[in-house]
Amino acid sequence: MRRAALHNLGCKVNSYETEAMQQLLEAAGYEIVPFSEQADVYIINTCSVTNVADRKSRQMLHRAKKQNPQAVVVAAGCYVQAAAKELQADLSVDVIIGNNKKKDLVQILDAYFAEHRPEQQMDAEPEYVIDIGDTHEYEELSISRIADHTRAFIKVQDGCNQFCSYCIIPYTRGRVRSRAPEDVEREVRTLVAGGYQEVVLTGIHLSSYGVDFEEGKKENLLGLIRRLHGIEGLQRIRLGSLEPRIITREFASELASMEKICPHFHLSLQSGCDETLKRMNRHYTVQEYAQRCEILREVFDNPAITTDVIVGFPGETEAEFAATKAFLEQIHFYEMHIFKYSRRAGTRAAGMPDQVPESVKGTRSDILLEAERRMSEAYRRSFLGRRKSVLLEEKIVLDGKEYMVGHTKEYVKAVVPYRENLKNVMVEGVMGRMLTDEILELELS
């Protein structure tokens, strides 16, 4: 029996695909071992969203070969799409597999072992990288379980048609491709039968789900959600990152009518300044973004609204940064993911004038991180003493007392004092059990 180890870099979509590849290997008879152990095959699902991600991908590939020079090292995913020629010349890499080819992992390994003796150092195989921009095929990967015993991340869409000026993803993931709704439903039913009560719908550009379907087979994200909402035993449906333009009153009202929907919305922003948004090639204004947030707050009771913000984008002046900071304070997010702009070769922004010094990016990032800390604590405190349902995830001890830890529908982390009658909802240390109508104590650190 061959031993395989996998390592994932990057987003939730990558995590899903890594889990799917692991299950393919297990079904083929491989023994899965931790990445730190000796293995016959190392699979690194790479990321290429920034130059830092590229470097981390190379580091993990080299680490794998150093751990076992005789092992087959497989580079898969986005960095392969961005740098296939470099990887073909990298002596630490034996096989390269681009996006839309991960489903063929087992057959690719079978062919490699049939053709190559382990002691030979061969060039990486180039034929497993396609022109991702030309494909209209959704890669059929699926999972029957995940490592997290409480919620399951489900990939329903791939690719992006937006071409933001800072982003390489349309070039590494290709155009929008959507998964057939019946396949999504089948997978969710399997997971629910296995005890999962919450699913999180993810994609490279989730809001575009269904735009590529043929006439007569049209489906959109809202239709997919309705379909999943009818699955008996499923308690929660959470959405991944959304474009703000998808939030209309009709969309929000439809979601609010479905009790399983989590009022937790990650609306990508990137900047709170219109001029910066134009240079980023984002297709909305700050006023339009604010209107979408107002709709959510009118339709839902205290929804969690989170976002991403890039600081130090080329040309960002002190005035533009100040406008962004003021806008963030105006919206008052639950959480913000703050990123310092990273110059990415192959994108339009990499060649823009007025690149911002790293020291300035660092200062601006620190300012927004402090604002995020204040906003997040204020939002979480708004739930203190309220009755909410909690999806229990683990048992912990704090100051000598036992608590159950989980998340509300808004993804606010809460602790519930442990007591004897909680045994009725405990399975395997309370993993994946729903506790309703609890008065919350929040983890505010």
What would you say this structure looks like, in words?
By secondary structure, the chain is of the alpha/beta class. It has 13 helices and 17 strands. Helix content is 33%, strand content 21%. A hairpin with a 2-residue loop joins strand 13 and strand 14. 43% of the residues are buried.
Keywords for this entry:
single chain; 445 residues; alpha/beta; five-stranded parallel sheet; 17 strands
Provide a concise account of the structure shown.
It contains 13 helices and 17 strands.
What's the alpha carbon Rg, rounded to whole Å?
23 Å
How much helical structure, as a percent, in the residues?
Answer: 25-40%
List how many beta strands DSSP finds: 17
Oligomer: single chain
Q: Average pLDDT across residues? A: 91
The spatial strand order of the largest sheet comes to 2-1-3-4-5
Strand content: 15-25%
Number of helix segments? 13
**Which regions contain 5 or more consecutive residues with pLDDT less than 50?**
423-432
User: What is the terminal separation in angstroms?
Assistant: 46 Å
| Biggest β-sheet description | 5 strands, parallel
